[in-house]
């Protein structure tokens, strides 16, 4: 088994365009949104808040097996051909990764963030979204750099903290300068939701000592 996930930082959740088939403790479910710290899951039977469950799903041929605590449950009504039926949505917090699940989750969230940024920028230009090439980013061995966008100008400060600022982002001190420049340009021209995704990408890149493989994003 792998170590428990860190309680902090909390990551902005990524909403899936289509629910992802999953199971919770062996029962059919669907992942609606997800982050490195938790998920929103739809399912048939009600769960009790505080219950420990096992969430399983497949991402690009790799299996994730994550122990979770149920932190909230809400019923909702779904219309079907035979009438109405009551389902449930549960917010779960990840407490333990099993059998390589942390890697699968990181790849999944990185893919979703990259894709969302790619598609939003492509839509703004009126052209099809094109997946960029993959490369290794981040790593935490040598510290971090915090970049803040204040009154139309960027400041850059060395730091030992991986915390993401509200007005910019923090990356590894070893990050590719060309990629930092692209992120700065994109951040400055982006709206609030896009800026949150850029912070998510930065947080992902420094969330492990080895960094994480991501697509090279072109604004």
Which runs of at least 5 residues are low in confidence (pLDDT < 50)? Answer: 126-138, 210-219
What would you report as the Rg, rounded to the nearest angstrom?
A: 19 Å
Distance between the termini: 39 Å
Question: How many domains is the backbone divided into?
Answer: 2
The strand order across the widest sheet is 1-2-3-6-5-4
Shape: elongated
**Helical content (DSSP H or I, runs of 4+):** 10-25%
- Given helix and strand content, the structural type is alpha+beta
List keywords for this structure.
single chain; 219 residues; alpha+beta; Thrombin, subunit H; 3-stranded antiparallel beta sheet; 3 helices; elongated; disordered C terminus
Structure description:
There is one protein chain. With 219 residues, this protein is of the alpha+beta class. It has two domains: 14-99, predicted glycosyltransferase like domains (Thrombin, subunit H); 105-215, no CATH class. Helices cover 23% and strands 43% of the residues. The chain is built from three helices and eleven strands, in the order ββββββαββββααβ. The chain has a six-stranded antiparallel β-barrel with strand order 1-2-3-6-5-4. Strands 9-8-10 form a three-stranded antiparallel beta sheet. β1 and β2 (27-34) form a beta hairpin. The longest helix has 25 residues, at 101-125. The model is unreliable at 126-138 and 210-219 (pLDDT under 50).
């Amino acid at each position: 088994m792998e170590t428990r996930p860190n309680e902090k930082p909390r990551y902005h959740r990524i909403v899936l365009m289509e629910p992802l088939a999953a199971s919770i403790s062996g029962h059919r479910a669907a992942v609606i949104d997800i982050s490195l710290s938790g998920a929103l899951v739809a399912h048939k039977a009600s769960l009790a808040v505080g219950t420990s469950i096992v969430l399983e799903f497949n991402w690009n041929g790799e299996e994730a097996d994550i122990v979770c605590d149920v932190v909230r449950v809400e019923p909702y009504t779904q219309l079907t051909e035979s009438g109405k039926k009551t389902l449930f949505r549960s917010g779960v917090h990840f407490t333990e990764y099993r059998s390589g699940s942390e890697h699968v989750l990181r790849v999944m969230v990185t893919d979703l963030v990259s894709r969302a940024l790619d598609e939003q920028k492509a839509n703004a230009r009126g052209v099809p979204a094109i997946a960029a090439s993959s490369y290794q980013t981040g790593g935490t061995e040598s510290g971090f750099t915090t970049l803040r966008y204040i009154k139309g100008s960027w400041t850059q400060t060395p730091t030992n903290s991986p915390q993401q600022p509200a007005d910019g982002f923090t990356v590894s001190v070893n990050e590719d300068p060309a990629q930092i420049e692209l992120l700065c340009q994109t951040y400055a021209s982006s709206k609030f939701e896009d800026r949150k995704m850029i912070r998510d990408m930065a947080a992902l890149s420094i969330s492990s000592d080895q960094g994480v493989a991501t697509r090279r994003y072109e604004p």
